[in-house]
Design goal:
This protein has 365 residues and is α+β, with helices and mostly antiparallel strands. It has a single domain, classed as L-amino peptidase D-ALA esterase/amidase, CATH 3.60.70.12. Helix content is 23%, strand content 24%. Helix 2 packs across helix 3 and helix 5 crosses helix 6. The longest helix has 21 residues. It is globular.
Length: 365
């Protein structure tokens, strides 16, 4: 289990209705082989940051999985994506952190590979090794002393080593520690869906949206909540969406890279259900991978692979949209009020008020 502390009840547990049936953990780890680890840095008055690691095929195993990615709005960073676009292969874990720590996290993973001798076949030229890991970011500078460069290589190693299947810690953990979502405390959230014979899971690092935009279970609760608690960003009344979101989609459906890019695009629809319009300042970057066809994405020999026909993709598309929507809600429901850098304070979602609003609209289960 990769959670160290008790969490607030998740949205579904409180009766918030979502479409579709989740897996046992209602997490990205319901896709067999996927493991998640966090290193959370909460130190003194100003450090509120961390690292999250999502391994496609289990801890200490290079990815070598078919993958695809999509940028809904590109004011952000996700390293390694030109090669995913070119080759259709994800051969590293997906690492999440803050904007100004992308470089150290990227370099630390390469060092991790060298020290552990994790040299995937896809990254070998004779006896030489090269690596283009996938590291994505959102900005945590309101709550975190982001220019203090507090994320160190050892923190990356810890997240990679601690990754595990099973329940996934949410809220102010790992890369999501200092994030703000729809004007409330945000961070990491996850969910999953059963799509016929297959499973789809989503994990988000949620740092986007203006408070007035927020919708939960289709109800525009943000209109009621925008004046409910103190405004964030240091200036009362500011409601602009200046944040970002990273969305990671995993599935065991046997999809090819072009189909996984289609899956990554569908994350946009789950995000839209929660109210975001993907602002000019937002880095909305999504990546999808399949754990099917192990070994097919590496080596030089001819391979025989399984593939799900395009005509059979609709249940997988629906599962993606549903799991993204619920993952974002889970990030918000897990968020607790946090005070951080320079005394800045961000309130947690007022869950009881949200439940009242849903009850008034007869939207609770």
């Amino acid at each position: 289990m990769n959670t160290a502390t008790a969490q607030r009840p998740r949205a579904r547990d409180l009766g918030v209705p979502f479409h579709g049936s989740p897996g046992p953990w209602n997490a990205i780890t319901d896709v067999a082989g996927v493991s998640v680890g966090h290193t959370t840095l909460i130190e003194g008055a100003n450090v509120r940051t961390g690292v999250s690691a999502i391994w496609p095929r289990g801890t200490m195993k290079p990815g070598a999985a078919f993958g695809g990615w999509f940028a809904l709005n590109g004011n952000g960073e996700m390293t390694g994506t030109p090669w995913i676009e070119e080759a259709g292969v994800l051969d590293s874990p997906v690492l999440l952190t803050n904007t100004h720590s992308v470089g150290v996290v990227r370099d630390a993973f390469i060092r991790f590979q060298v020290e552990r001798k994790l040299y995937p076949e896809t990254n070998r030229i004779g006896n030489l090794f090269w690596s283009m890991p996938v590291v994505a970011e959102t900005y945590d500078g309101y709550l975190n002393d982001t220019n203090g460069f507090h994320v160190k290589p050892e923190h990356v190693f810890q997240a990679l080593d601690k990754a595990a299947p099973g329940p996934v810690a949410e809220g102010a953990v790992g890369g999501g520690t200092g994030m703000i979502c729809y004007g409330f405390k945000g961070g990491i959230g996850t969910s999953s869906r059963i799509a016929g014979d297959y499973r789809v899971g989503a994990l988000v690092q949620c740092n986007c949206g203006a408070r007035e935009q927020l919708k939960i279970a289709g109800i525009p609760v943000g209109d009621e909540l925008r004046n409910a608690v103190a405004a964030v960003l240091g200036q009362p009344g500011i409601t602009e969406d200046r944040g970002s979101i990273i969305i990671v989609i995993a599935t065991d459906a046997p999809l090819q890279p072009h189909q996984l890019k289609r899956l990554a695009r569908r994350a946009s629809l789950g995000l839209a259900r929660t109210g975001s319009t993907s602002s000019n300042y937002s880095g909305d970057l999504f990546i999808a991978f399949s754990t099917a066809n192990p070994g097919a994405a590496s080596g030089k020999e001819e391979k025989t692979i399984r593939i799900l026909p395009n005509e059979a993709l609709d249940p997988v598309f629906t599962a993606t949209v549903d799991s993204v929507e619920e993952a974002i809600a889970n990030a918000l429901f897990a968020g607790e009020t946090m005070t951080g850098n320079e005394g800045h304070k961000v309130e947690g979602l007022p869950v009881n008020r949200v439940l009242e609003l849903l009850r008034e609209r007869k939207a609770l289960r």
